[in-house]
Amino acid sequence: MSLITPARRTTATAQAPAAQSRPAPRRSGTPWMFLAPAIVLFVLFLAAPIVYAGYLSLRKVQVSGLGLGAKSRTEVWAGLSNYARSLTDPEFLPSVLRVGAYGLIVVPTMLGLALLMALLLDANRTRESIGKFARISIFLPYAVPAVVASLLWGFLYLPRVSPFNDALEALGLPAPNLLSNDLTLWAVANIAVWGGVGFNMIVIYTALRAVPTSLYESARIDGASETAIAWRIKIPIVMPSLVMTFVFSLIATLQVFAEPMTLRPLANTISTTWTPLMKVYRDAFTRNDIYAAAATSVIIALATFILSFGFLKLVGRRAFNQED
Amino acid sequence: MKTKFAPLVAALTLFAVTACSSSDSDSSTQQEEPTGPVALTYWSWAPNMDKVVAAWNAKNPNIQVTVNKQDGGDPAVTKLLTAIKAGSGAPDIMQAEYQKIPTLVSSDAIVDIAAEVGSVKDKFPEGAWSGVTLGSEAVYGVPQDSGPLMFFYRSDVFDKNGLQAPKTWDDYAAAAEKIHKANPKQYLGTFSSNDPGLFAGLAQQAGGSWWGVKGDAWSVNINEPNTQKVAAYWGGLVEKGVIDNKPMYTPEWNAALNDGTQVGWVSAVWAPGVLEGSAKDTKGKWKAATMPQWDVAAPATGNWGGSATSVTTQSKYKKQAAQFATWLNTDPEALKLLAGTANVYPAANDAASVLTSPPAFFSDQPDFYTIAGEAAKVTKPFTYGPNVNVAYNAFNDAFGKAAESKKATAFTEGLATMQQTTVDDLKNTGFTVAG
Question: Does A38 touch chain B (CB under 8 A)?
Answer without folding.
Answer: no
